[in-house]
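subagent[fold] <- orchestrator: predict structure for attached chain, return tokens only, no commentary.
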Amino acid sequence: MKTGKLPWDKVASLLSRLPVDDIDLVMGPSQGEDAAVIRVRDGFLVVHADPITTGVKHAGYLAVHVAANDIAVRGVKPRWFLPVILFPEAFSEVEIDEFFSDIGKALREIGGVVVGGHTEVTPGINRPIISMTAAGFTTSRIILTRDARPGDVLYVVGRVGGEGAGIIAWDFLEVLLERNIEAWIIEEARKYMYQISIVNTALGIRDYVSAMHDATEGGVLQALRELAVASGGRAVIDVDKLKIDEPVEAITKAVNLDPLRILSSGCIVASVPPSSVGGFEKAVEELRVQYSRVGYMERGSGEVVLKKGSVVLDVVDRDIVDEIYKLWI
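subagent[fold] -> orchestrator:
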């Protein structure tokens, strides 16, 4: 079995063995959908769980924001968190303390609290593994990935590949130095690890989008692919509009990875009705977040069409295995 997420057809087959039907389950397991939506009394509980299995440095910090982001792209503020943490036997008490400090730092940044979880030392692993469950509650509109429509304008909001570049800068420092990456580039990329929250951005643009999706594993291309699959459409993208920051480009080139196919927490793919484009762009600019208008939605079957001018460069019609896993093989 390949590293990374299981193929969706395999996941669907496995889910067929499990009970998933409930009168109050508004959105359950579905490709491209970021979080479950459960009806409770006068509102909706939004819940999501995600693991961090790559990146030792600051994995606790990452775990909070990665899970929180998937709540936020529903248009809901993340509030409650349950971490399950597995430490390797070689981890020291100092390292465990630092791990929890990172979790606390991230929670304070977004106003979240821990309400439970589990921690243990586990034999047979060589780096910490954390799975974080996040939840939020709303009585307002829930944004679903499947609601992107033909004719919608597609935007990428935030830094493409920043999370992946940050992990590489922290965990593969010697490799980067051996390959003559300048110190300032490494230091800049390391800062990206602290710039992956999209909570404020997502809540600030929620009134203007048809759909939005957090770019995590598989990067921006997988986020676009999941948006297209969930909505039953096709994302047409101008590759010249996909901006890559210099540190991300330098680091990914040094380790021979595609910046469009690596972890990109901190980046949102948004589908915006033409009538809302003005309000959307104004809102993003007021938030002082970088963004690019990269393409549009049309009718299709879950493809991402990459174009340069009128020339089609590639058609992505399969889920992407995040390229960062290559560094641990």
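orchestrator: received. Logging for downstream: The first strand starts at residue 25 and ends at 27. The radius of gyration is 19 Å.
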